[in-house]
Design brief:
Length: 153
């Protein structure tokens, strides 16, 4: 069997750099980290500049992260990129984000909003299904004895 070359695999097509859709997408990676990527079209940038009388030229591109469970807001300055890893997040919390420009005075102009995601739990499940029981060998590895019961280690 011959090794297919790159041209055969993609039939000469390549993925576009951008799709022309204004969007911000969040994807949980682990209990404390979420990956965000976005696309802001030049048309949206131009419409926002006209709407805010060119005051956005001095404003910085900012990713605003909202914790829906606690109400905390975190602003992250993002320059010359279209993606970001949001780290130091809390496990088992609901997050959403907005991308826009932050004025030096502190005003935020939202361009688009993201989907809502929940970060995974940072512990083993409390639901124990007898069909998926942990063997004693592994149980000693994942649990340790403490006074009053078992705890994840």
């Amino acid at each position: 069997m011959h090794e297919p070359d790159r041209h055969e695999l993609n039939a000469g097509w390549t993925l576009p750099f951008a799709y022309g859709i204004d969007r911000l997408v969040l994807m949980p990676r682990d209990p404390h980290k979420v990956f965000a990527y976005w696309e802001i079209t030049p048309r949206l940038e131009e419409n926002m500049r006209k709407r805010y009388n060119d005051s956005l030229d001095t404003a910085c591109m900012t990713l605003r992260v909202l914790n829906r469970d606690t109400g905390l807001i975190k602003d992250i300055l993002v320059k010359d990129t279209d993606n970001w890893y949001l780290d130091q997040l809390e496990a088992d919390q609901i997050y959403c984000a907005e991308i826009g420009r932050m004025h030096k005075s502190g005003g935020f102009v939202r361009f688009t909003a993201s989907n809502t995601v929940r970060t995974p739990r940072n512990s083993l499940s409390s639901v124990i299904d007898p069909r998926w029981r942990i063997f004693a060998f592994w149980q000693h590895r994942y649990y340790r004895r403490i006074p009053g019961g078992l705890s994840s280690a």
